[in-house]
Design brief:
Blueprint (H helix, E strand, L loop, with lengths): L7 E4 L6 H10 L3 E5 L13 H15 E2 L6 E8 L2 E8 L8 E2 L10 E4 L2 E4 L2 H12 L16 H9 L6 H7 L10 H6 L7 E6 L7 E7 L3 H14 L3 E6 L2 E6 L3 H13 L9 E5 L3 E7 L8 H5 L8 H9 L9 H7 L9 E4 L3 E7 L15 H6 L1 H5 L5 H8 L3 H13 L3 E4 L6 E4 L2
Parallel strand pairs: 1-2, 9-13
Antiparallel strand pairs: 2-5, 3-6, 4-5, 7-8, 9-10, 11-12, 13-14, 14-16, 15-16, 17-18
Helix pairs in contact: 7-8, 8-11, 14-15
Length: 432
């Protein structure tokens, strides 16, 4: 008497449900499917062996994804002098296997539970994906295989970069089994991860002035997020002689780098949104995912970068969103070099937070850096003369041309002195 168990299944004749059993064996510990044996173990045989084996072969080839044929062997044996088809299924290496018409969802993925074939739970599907794809999120198979790339097509086309099927494989959007990866999910129009933005009155989270939640492709989200921030990045005008100088609340370069950092380095294995909060005195970028294991806070401040989402960063690099790895933090700091207030970076085990101070906030408006000791010494000559040239400085302090130019440029950039003319005829005056 034959008995059904976790690795044995009986079918009196061929039915469509055989596909589910084969998927369950491939997703679990393997097993054998007998066609021609009743559920009670009675051997009844198969009348048309060739036709039945053809149906099995076609079903496996056409209805199951990824390709599982290499893990299946179909044979015919005589049991009690009756023809029985035995389908031997090994545990597959590209799990989860699923019905092509249903996708990687519980209604399309099956496992063995005792002697029964049952739909897999979503957590079981995720565990299979993790086991076969490794720990890197962007390499894992996307649960959603019905993806479109309208925004990605537009962005790649505008930058004259190929985005055909071959390129998607090269970039890592499609794996060796022809399935979309989570990297593809992030760039697709169906991306489930979002950016939430809010503008608050004052310096605390009490009164909302504006808010938005962005969804869709990450390529859409970064464009829309930057536009939202830019709309609230106000301008203060200064006059340098007759020249008008517009100063934004936040240096655009710092905003750009903080936004890209939040998107590229986020840990997408968590579903929480990236949060961007704009206050009167600052803007905060908060994203899930602390520092990547093996890197410290001091490392990132020195420009060391260990990428959590390397392939996503590679795509952003190809699209010229980022110039080089590890330079974002340094660019943010550099954009504030004229001011005492600096970007603040906070890191916990699971959160990375960047705070950019508002340059034009009333408490910060006069916080430009004063002259250094070296520069203050040089300024003595300006107190005795109305106009100073580079050669005057070289002669007075016995310094080289390059040193004189460096100091003059620094004082001019800080707004302490003003340059008149250009080239050899350039001169400098002390600003009142």
């Amino acid at each position: 008497m034959f008995i059904e168990n976790k690795t044995t299944e009986f079918k009196r004749e061929y039915t469509e449900n055989i596909k589910k059993t084969i998927i369950a064996f491939a997703n679990s510990s393997g097993g054998k499917l007998f066609i021609g044996i009743d559920n009670d173990g009675t051997v009844c045989g198969v009348n048309d062996v060739d036709d039945t084996m053809l149906k099995v072969t076609n079903a496996v080839r056409d209805a199951i994804r990824p390709d599982v044929t290499m893990f299946i062997h179909c044979d015919c044996e005589l049991i009690d002098n009756k023809a029985v088809i035995i389908i031997t299924v090994q545990r597959g290496t590209a799990r989860p296997y699923y019905l092509s018409g249903k996708g990687i969802r519980p209604e399309g993925v099956f496992v063995r539970q005792g002697a029964s074939t049952v739909p897999a739970t979503e957590s079981a599907i995720l565990n299979m994906i993790k086991e076969t794809s490794g720990d890197r999120f962007e390499d894992a198979v996307s649960l959603n295989q019905q993806l479109t790339f309208n925004k990605a097509d537009e962005v790649f086309e505008n930058r004259k970069i190929l985005f055909d099927d071959a390129q998607k494989r090269t970039l890592g959007l499609v794996n060796e089994s022809g399935l979309y990866t989570n990297l593809a999910l992030l760039l697709s129009d169906q991306c489930p991860y979002s950016i939430k933005l809010a503008v608050f009155e004052g310096s605390v989270k009490t009164i909302f002035k504006n808010r938005a939640e962005l969804s869709g492709s990450l390529l859409s989200q970064i464009e829309d997020a930057y536009e939202f921030i830019d709309m609230h990045n106000h301008v203060r005008a200064e006059f340098k002689g007759l020249e008008r100088i517009d100063i934004r609340d936040y240096p655009p370069e710092a905003v750009r780098e903080a936004l890209l950092n939040a998107v590229v380095h986020r840990d997408y294995s968590f579903s929480s949104s990236t949060l961007i909060s704009i206050f009167d005195d600052r803007i905060e970028f908060v994203n899930i995912g602390g520092l990547v294991k093996g890197i410290s806070y001091d490392d990132i401040m020195l420009g060391i970068s260990l990428l959590r989402n390397k392939k996503l960063a590679d795509i952003f690099y190809r699209l010229n969103f980022i110039e080089a790895y590890g330079t974002g933090i340094m660019k943010m700091m550099s954009s504030y070099e004229e001011y005492l207030m600096k970007p603040d970076i906070e890191v916990s085990d699971n959160v990375f937070k960047v705070t950019l101070p508002n340059i034009n906030y009333s408490d910060n408006s006069n916080m430009k850096i004063s002259a250094t000791a070296e520069e203050d010494k040089i300024l003595q000559i300006f107190r005795n003369r109305d106009v100073v040239t580079r050669k005057d400085m070289e002669s007075e302090f016995n310094i080289s041309k390059s040193t004189a130019l460096r100091i003059l440029n620094s004082l001019d950039k800080k707004g302490i002195i003003a340059k008149k003319g250009a080239g050899k005829g350039a001169s400098y005056i002390l600003k009142k």
